[in-house]
Amino acid sequence: MPAADDTAEQIAALLDGIVRRQRRGSREGFKDSVTHGQFRVLRTLDHAGRALRLSELAAQLGIVPRSATSVVDDLESAGLVARQPDPKDRRATLVDLTPAGRHILTTLREKRRAVMATQLARLTPAEQETLAHLLHRLTED
Fold this sequence. Notes:
This protein has a single domain (10-139), classed as Orthogonal Bundle (Arc Repressor Mutant, subunit A). Helices cover 67% and strands 12% of the residues. The chain is built from six helices and three strands, in the order ααβααββαα. It has helices at residues 4-26, 36-48, 54-61, 65-77, 99-120, 125-139, and strands at residues 52-53, 81-86, 89-97. The chain has a three-stranded antiparallel sheet. β2 and β3 form a beta hairpin. Keywords: DNA-binding, Transcription, Transcription regulation. InterPro entries: HTH_MarR-typ, MarR/SlyA-like, Tscrpt_reg_MarR-type_CS, WH-like_DNA-bd_sf, WH_DNA-bd_sf.
């Protein structure tokens, strides 16, 4: 029987491989146009359902505001997000998805879901349910 440390390392490596495969598959056809970090920004803005201040966006992403600014700069250049002045505070800037940003986010999500469905097809429905249950337990805080 493997030691707990060996099992933990094996599980970590397997999860990393699954995530890499999913990222690679969901970005097919987009080449390097959207990085994982940019996808996170698009997803966070979509989840918020409203424009966010750069500082709010950075806080929700768990990154420093300067890093958020860099990612938003790239997304704005690609036409996927737009900046606008905050009507409540002239010093602040709001960031929101553009229609093109919403479209690419929807497409990436659909591809991600399809890649995961292909991976999960190797498991029986009962195994899929067990996996989902175990992953939920691991993500509980």
